[in-house]
Amino acid sequence: MSTAPLEPAYTPRQSSAGPWTLISLASALGLLLVAAEPLLGGTAYGWAVVAVTAVFSARLALVDERTHTLPNRLTGALAVFGIIQAIGISAWRHDTAPLVIAGVTAVILASLYALLALTKSGGFGDIKFAGALALTIAPYAGLLTLYLLPIAFIISAVRVMARRVRGRAAKHPHGPSLAIAGIVLFVGSMLAGPALLPA
C-alpha cells in the first residue's frame, strides 16, 4: 500500500508575475510606443496600439472563459497602457480632448456595467475591463467608444443563441464578448481614419 499523498489530476497554473510586474511592463511598453510615435508616424503607431490591445484583450478573454474572472493585474495593466496612450496623444496634439474623452467614456461605460452588475446582468470584472478598453480605444474612436456596450451585448446574444443550439447553458462569461467588441470598434475606427490621432 502506497503512503504517497494523492495529487489532484489538474493543478491550476500559478502566475509568477505579481500585479505590479505586469503593470510595470505595460507602462514600459506604453511609454516606448509613445516615444516611438515620431518614428512610426500616426497610422503605424495606431496599429501598434491596436496590436497590443488585441493581445491584452485576447488574454483577458481566455482567462474569463476558463475561470469566469477578469484579474486586476490584467485589467489594470490594460488601463495603465491606455492612460499612457491618451496622455501621449493629448501631448502631441497640444489638446486635452483625447485624454478627457478617454476619461469620460471610461466613467460612462464603467457606470453602465456597474448598473448591470448590480442587477446580476454582468460581473464586476466587466466593469474593470470595459473601463480599461475605453481608456485605450477612446483616443482613437472618440465618443463612438460608447458603442462598446451595445456591440458587446449583440455578441453576447449571438453566443447565447449558439450555446442554446448546442444544448449548453445560456450563462457565459461576458469578457470574450467585450474583447471582441473592443477590437472590432478599434479596428473600425482605424480603418475609418481616427480623427484624434496626431498628424
How would you describe this protein?
The chain is an all-alpha fold and 199 residues long. The chain contains seven helices and no strands. The longest helix has 26 residues. About 4% of the residues have low confidence.
Short description:
The chain has helices at 19-40, 42-67, 72-93, 97-118, 124-141, 148-165, 175-192.
Features:
199 residues, mainly alpha, 0% strand, globular
Please identify the structural class as seen in this structure.
mainly alpha
End-to-end C-alpha gap: 75 Å
Radius of gyration, in angstroms, nearest whole number: 19 Å
Mean pLDDT level = 86
Q: Bin the strand percentage.
A: under 5%
Overall morphology: globular
How would you spell out the order of helices and strands?
Answer: HHHHHHH
Show the helix and strand layout:
Layout: H1 19-40, H2 42-67, H3 72-93, H4 97-118, H5 124-141, H6 148-165, H7 175-192
Helix pairs in contact: 1-2, 1-3, 2-3, 2-5, 2-7, 3-4, 3-5, 4-5, 5-7, 6-7
